[in-house]
Amino acid sequence: MTRTAYTPSLPGLSTTDGLDTVINWGLETISFGGLKCGCPGGLRLQCWCDDAGMREVDELINVDDPAWPLLLQELSGTDVPVEVLPGDAETGRASLLQLQVSARSNLGGIVLNSGGLLVDSGWLRIFGSPGDADTERLPGLAEINVMPSEFDPAWRPGAGLVVAHDVLGGVFALNGGNPREAARPGEPGEIIYFAPDSLGWEALGAGHSAWLSWVLSGGLHEFYGSLRWDDWRSEVSVLTGRQGLSFYPPLWSAEARQDLLATSRRAVPMAELLGLSRDSCLQFDGADPGFLGVV
Length: 295
Hints:
By secondary structure, this protein is an alpha+beta fold. It is built from 10 helices and 9 strands. It has a 7-stranded antiparallel β-sheet, with helices on one face. Strands 8-9 form a two-stranded antiparallel sheet.
């Protein structure tokens, strides 16, 4: 199917959506401690160029304008059902340090202050830092991206940081510093989507904060279009964040595209669903979609 909302340039969204939210994970401007780097666009890419710019966790947390209070206001005002899972403070601090993202960004705010967001009855799962009691409901950003258990300044998230999954096996990722080298569309710091109905990545034309605002404004309804069915909400709400729905014939097939209601579906582990997508990509055109997250 063709997505009609949030295709490469949705009106009102921009990849330049704030000082701390655009290029790579946290996305401060080029200058830190008097250092500058040669990253694309003149922006500093999470110390890919110079580890001398690494910041301590207290510096990342104790900022003048944290994003979380404003995000809570946005969450309280949305008509979209969102469940905010309780977070684990220690995991949140460790993830913030590893990512070198400050609490000024929505990404940093979610990772530091929550266990993640279950949007639209769990159709979309935005990863945070859940406590042990909630990791079965939703894995954390650190687990999904295989972050080291101890801080490692040499660790890099590769082609991009996986920030969310959807129940269909779709993957939302934040582009790294060189998408072209990773054979991915879009610009550095842009949100891209691996679509299970086309088995390919799509650039969405927005950075993380604009993407999140779009989600909370109800954009998912049009984005998924005919990929939803009557009573989908009750079927999705009973799944955990480690499960997805597998369709037969699969979503990328001509049969499913013509008549979704003629397909059957069943709950499967998300790891199985992501593996099926990768295997299908390799079988059809030999193109590996790359890292889709580990569940």
